[in-house]
Amino acid sequence: MSTPHFPTPARLTIIYDETCELCRRCRHWLATQPTHVELVFYACGDPRVADLYGDLPWYRIELMVLSDAGHAWVGPEAFLMCLWATRRWRGTSFRLTGTAFSPMAERFFHALSDRRATISALLEPHTCDGATCTPAT
Amino acid sequence: MTYLMWTYFIYSVAAIGMTALLAKTLSQNGAVFLADVFDDNPKMATAINQLLVTGFFMINMGYALLIFKTDRAADALVATENLVAKLGLLLVSLGVIHFVNMAVFWKIKKSGDADKYVPAAPTTMVPPPPAPGTGIYA
């Protein structure tokens, strides 16, 4: 991961795997965080994004974050962009790109993404609506 | 004049001179940092620079005055030792405050960068995403 001087987007579109409980909870957490930029969420199963990006090799495998201009951050970089969007964790997103933390952060985000099905299996399914999540019935 | 008066005189001149010189260095170089952070508002950069330098000057001069008092010296050797010890203490203190100021400038620059840049370069380019709010699972 690098720390380039890339202009900031005004809005981010996040495409996540809605079949994974961990991803749904992360999406809910992110949606309830105070953010610097507007966030738009799309599930991978949404035909509007599936039609556009379904052929990409990392679709449904890795988290995707897009700018309105079509810049795409995939995998660990996408996680960093999610942190960067929040008011609370923006500083951390830059620290995680530093020499000391970058390799560790990349491994952590890859591991989290690769093992999300296993982690999700340990979580009780929840239904999230607005600011609250309740166990699915 | 007694040795003590000479010690006080040289110490005063050196303290004012060193503080002014460091304040000028801090101001000139700090302006570069602040101009980069507040490139859309140069007046703000100048104002913050002036306020930081004023604070730096006040703390340093206040500290220099607080450690002003020294022991009586029987001869020139003791007077010189007293003077050198005082100036050494002052210089170390100025150095510490100077690094604190640099840390403040660096912090301001880092927080400015956080608003201007993103932490990672885009992985690739894809077609622009659909308009928000219409996804069936969104």
For the terminal residues of chain A, how far apart are their CA atoms?
Answer: 41 Å
Radius of gyration of chain A: 15 Å
Shape category of chain A: globular
**C-alpha termini separation of chain B:** 85 Å
Q: What is the tally of helical segments of chain A?
A: 6
Largest sheet properties of chain B: none
The tally of structural domains of chain A comes to: 1
**Structural class of chain A, please?**
alpha+beta
Assembly category:
heterodimer
Which protein chains are joined by the largest interface, and how many residues does each one contribute? A-B, 49 and 27 residues
What order do the helices and strands of chain B follow?
HHHE
Q: If you had to describe this structure to a student in words, what would you say it looks like?
A:
The complex is a heterodimer of chains A (137) and B (138). With 137 residues, chain A is an alpha+beta fold. Chain A is 39% helix and 20% strand. Chain A has one domain. Chain A is built from six helices and six strands; from the N terminus they run βαβαββααααββ. A four-stranded mixed β-sheet of chain A has the order 2-1-3-4, covered by helices on one side. The longest helix of chain A is centred in the last third of the chain and has 13 residues. The termini of chain A are far apart. The model of chain A has no long low-confidence stretch (mean pLDDT 85). In chain B, helix 1 packs parallel to helix 3 and helix 2 packs antiparallel against helix 3. Chain B is rod-shaped and about 85 Å long. Chains A and B meet through strand 1, strand 2, helix 2, strand 4 and helix 3 of A and helix 3 and strand 1 of B. Strand 4 of chain A pairs antiparallel with strand 1 of chain B, so a sheet runs across the interface.
